[in-house]
Amino acid sequence: MIGEQKVLFSGMQATGSLTLGNYLGALKNWVSLADEYMTFYSVVDLHSITVRQDPAELRSRARRLLTLYIAAGLDPEKNCIYYQSHVSGHAELAWILNCFTYMGELNRMTQFKDKAAKHADNINAGLFTYPVLMAADILLYQADVVPVGKDQLQHLELTRNLAQRFNAIYGDVFTIPEPYMGKTGASIKSLQDPSKKMSKSDENPNASIYLTDDPDTIIRKFKRAVTDSEGQILYREEQPGIRNLIDIYSACTGKTPEETVREFDGKGYGEFKMAVGEAVVSTLRPLQERFQQLFQDKAYLDGIIKENAQKAQYYSAKTLRKVQKKVGFPERLF
Q1: Is the domain 215-293 a CATH 1.10.240.10 member?
Q2: What is the pTM of this model?
């Protein structure tokens, strides 16, 4: 907690392109949180380099992601939106926390096993200690709450364990973060494999709707979306492809799944897919227009990047100096 306000921290990687799932499941719902929390939203580019990146491409994606945060409705005056790599405290605290993390804890991380299998030619130490950097991200701002999906709960639990371990040795230093249990968005699945969530790293470009996809591309991807041979638009587990399309349509129109089923009763899959595609196009149009406007305003974006980095640096330094003093580092005289 900072002052009277509780703190919320979240971040997204500067790899791939944000999807409709990222927007409907998270980003859209972050907008109202600034009234309730002091919010820090990071473009986590330090995490991105556990996998080899093209430098120019990484810089471009990071800037696009930061711009999408703002285009989606996050006011940079109310929310601290910044590049992780611009605040050295993330890396500094991560090193200290590494020295309080047990190898056995990191060996149990399922995401490391998954990513190591995907990148067998580059199983580096950063990939292994990735969860410790994530813990540093959260603890650096004394975050009270962190919005996390099921795949990140294990990392948040490690963060809590590290904070409790450090506090047990040195006193009340870190806030123990809780998972954010407020309003959650729709769980959007892959258009090609509805048993998996829509992912910005999916190798099949038809599986995901990206926030900057043009209308024709969006419609084409929905036309190719996997359904079934039953021919009925029903909201049930036995029809995961149709269920996913109903979830998307409902999230974009504000209708319930039941209302959507009634609306398309007796209609064919082709007509339904077209309607879902058009609803998504309408939903993303204001965001895309705002994105284009912002992305062309270099001076405005550069100003936001500088101001928010300074704000993040100010709050992170408070925690870092306290931690450095506790572990016995000499006081900085500059």
Answers
A1: yes
A2: 0.90
